[in-house]
Write a structure and sequence with these properties.
By secondary structure, the protein is mainly β. About 10% of the residues lie in helices and about 55% in strands. It has 1 helix and 8 strands. The protein has an 8-stranded antiparallel sheet, with no helix packed on it. Strand 4 and strand 5 form a beta hairpin. It is elongated. About 15% of the residues are buried. The model has no long low-confidence stretch (mean pLDDT about 80).
Length: about 110
């Protein structure tokens, strides 16, 4: 009975959390250029090096998945993007235009 109590106590003190998180990104400054989205969401897992599109940027191909940065190419819309894990900043490059998004991490529970 005592073992059962300690197992329950251990599981309630350490909730199960996934290694992935949802990025919710919003533009830092509004622009008149309609080629850029005002906000989007992605699901990122840096341990397994996976990136899933939740909303926005459905044709992204991961080029580099580093320890603290992800580099993405979108050949359909001719854009390059980077996400910096330290600053939580998503930057999109399209021709001569640069768009910066500030992202918030939302932990996912399973």
């Amino acid at each position: 009975m005592l073992k059962f109590f300690f197992i329950i106590l251990f599981l309630t003190n350490f909730p199960l959390q996934s290694k992935e998180f949802k990025l919710i990104c919003s533009e830092t400054e509004p622009s008149n250029n309609k080629n850029f989205l005002s906000n989007f969401s992605k699901i990122v897992n840096f341990e397994e090096r996976t990136l899933f599109n939740y909303s926005g940027g459905y044709f992204d191909d991961v080029i580099l998945f580093g320890r603290n940065e992800v580099v993405i190419s979108n050949k359909i819309f001719n854009t390059m993007s980077t996400f910096n894990r330290i600053t939580n900043r998503w930057t999109v490059y399209k021709g001569q235009f640069i768009k910066i998004y500030k992202c918030e991490k939302e932990r996912r529970r399973f």
